[in-house]
Amino acid sequence: MDLVGGCRAFVSVSELGSFTRGSAAAGIAQPVASRRIAALEQHLGERLFDRSTRRAHLTPFGRDMLPWARRMVRLADAMDHAAQRARLRPLRVAVPAFCTTRDLAELDAEARACELVLEFRPAEPGERLDLLHTNDVRAALTAVPSDEAHWTVPLGVGSAVNLRPGPVHLETLRIGRSAVMPRRRVWIQPEDDVPHIRDRLTRLRDSVGLRPSQVSVADSLTSAVGEVFGSADLLLCSAAQAGEFGLQWRPVAELRLTRGFDVAAEVGDDAERLRTLLWSGIARCLGGDADE
């Protein structure tokens, strides 16, 4: 039986002295209140109300049980309140440092609609895992190869100067020894300083005959963009990032590079909620296609 529902109807009817008023105060129909109280009486093995009068008079047994029923209702209400607070306990998530404030705010709003409150910790790939292992966050968006990813984001190069239509061939960055123009570089931002991206790009660099310094890892995204703004250098980035910085974006001709992301969490339910409830919002934050 519904012990809490029976106690709630019992308390409400006893306090108002009427099945009609008591059921209305409890937000249930009178027949429902009567059935619940009858079930409670059967469960307890004794009558709670004297049915021989028009008013809802308690029996001696009913008077003895009323304080316990009130306690049961208070505990149930307290448990409901605690459960609501637990559901709304912030889920701290380590996210890529490149995620914009607007995208994170929109993701937060989507999460609240799902009764999930997020708290974000922007960090670079290695730091995100460290935050998870030290329990500073409950979940982390981790950088993984594209074949292991739940979210993928194609990469290309962005430029502050005009680029020809079509993919950029990195071999065109190679210049002869007699050239007086400075060598153009491709800057890798910290988010892409992971083996499945960095190593493939450096192997391409070597295969097309570029100098080692022509593919460099920047100390920060800000410094990488600054280098590109002040030169003809290229930034390895997503199309969304290029749009954010006002750069022209083109894919790389010789190599398909892709950021891959998954969720790591100490509790499996946290990861699954992020993957399912917020898939599109997370895709948008990462610069991917939220409609895939």
UniProtKB/TrEMBL annotation:
Superkingdom of this protein's organism: Bacteria
Pfam families in UniProt: HTH_1
UniProt domain HTH lysR-type: residue ranges: 1-59
GO molecular function: DNA-binding transcription factor activity; transcription cis-regulatory region binding
Keywords (A to Z) from UniProt: DNA-binding, Transcription, Transcription regulation
Signal sequence range: none
PANTHER family noted in UniProt: HTH-TYPE TRANSCRIPTIONAL REGULATOR, HTH-TYPE TRANSCRIPTIONAL REGULATOR GLTR
Family membership: Belongs to the LysR transcriptional regulatory family.
Protein name: DNA-binding transcriptional LysR family regulator
Organism the protein comes from: Actinopolyspora biskrensis
